[in-house]
RNA sequence: GGGUCGGUGCCCGAGUGGUUAAUGGGGGCGGACUGUAAAUCCGCUGGCUCUGCCUACGUUGGUUCAAAUCCAACCCGGCCCA
């Protein structure tokens, strides 16, 4: 089991998970396991899935997962790990994100396939923190603010760095830890799950529970998954993520490239594989991990196909019968010059970029290098069914 | 509110009247190499169906043949004082 927080006084039953479990059994009730997510982006990635896997384990053990959609706090933005003031997002955007999150977590799916168990009654509560936060009045907010000090806030790593470097900190950002801590009070959490970077916030939840006369929650802090760059944490804004919704091929091909330094973390945090039984060869280990993770999301069969396809594509055959994403020629006006084609088909962000890529020797059609950006194609007919390639990793099969 | 410094391309950060999308670094993308990657080396890193034409240095106006660079107002921020 991962990092437990707080280590605290071992004699204090309040701070021991085993004691919690025992007490729950004695009382004949399941524990309430809080996990809060802020719907600030549209996709859940593998970094999040560590937490959800743990939450699911609690569910399977008979406890109640209390999933808090931070629809209210998302509008403030968690300052954790941020070096700049986060842009506030709209209510509508938050709501849309929340819907996709639930879908990605497996709402409406049988529990065997879903990340969380949405089926078994009593195992899941989905709450939105606007339920209780929106209704707070000013005296209550002031009461919350009174429980923490500026010194405590500035001791938090993110804030102290920003303060030290002269980066603005808006006052409302101080409210974030308090509000998300108040969530623990609102749902009467026994245990809160979070990444190790959530230590401050989880601790704040304990303080507030104590303040409100509740038994304090047990914080379970799970390791942060490093991103594909092998250095920074997996985060959408850093662009080093593997999305849960990624198709098997791109999921697999991203994962098989995880750096040697990060591979063991991926194995232990994302799969049920035993490190001991895996091949020593780092390349083989990567493949095994990538296969297992892909399979856990898309099934064994799809994962195996992705592995085969990845080998074919990267192996250079380029035009194999692999499962290449399609790109429509419908938006392309013919005659089309090569650079325009690349951009119109969406494989390059702009026509200027396409021109550069072609000059740099990155573009291929059916494995043949396109060297002239101005090369002209007369009609869609001569391109249909062919595979357009950019670099080693990006392929599009052109369709009418 | 006063003083002061500052707002430059994805980010950081040079530049302080004049051939140029604007030094450098990071990141990103591409090429070579390799077990994929990393490391290393090389190239690219505003837009446009592009041998040219557009739009760019907080915003708006002004001075000038000419401004990211000068002036004014405004907006935003750091620090100090109150």
Q: Give the helices and strands as they follow along the chain.
A: EHEHEHEHHHHHEHEHHHHEEHHEEEEE
The CATH topology of the largest domain: Rossmann fold
- Low-confidence spans: 1-14, 316-320
CATH superfamily of the largest domain: HUPs
Question: Which percent range describes the beta-strand content?
Answer: 5-15%
Radius of gyration: 25 Å
Main pleated sheet = 6 strands, mixed
Architecture blueprint of SSEs:
Elements: E1 4-5, H1 17-27, E2 32-37, H2 46-60, E3 64-69, H3 91-105, E4 124-128, H4 130-133, H5 138-145, H6 150-155, H7 157-164, H8 172-187, E5 191-195, H9 199-211, E6 218-222, H10 248-255, H11 263-270, H12 282-298, H13 300-317, E7 326-328, E8 336-337, H14 338-344, H15 351-359, E9 363-365, E10 368-369, E11 376-377, E12 387-390, E13 394-399
Parallel strand pairs: 2-3, 2-5, 3-4, 5-6, 7-13
Antiparallel strand pairs: 1-6, 8-11, 9-10, 9-12, 12-13
The chain binds one RNA strand of 82 nucleotides through residues 166-168, 228, 230, 239, 253, 256-261, 281-284, 286-287, 310, 314, 333, 335-341, 343-344, 350-353, 355-357, 359-362, 373-374, 376, 390-392.
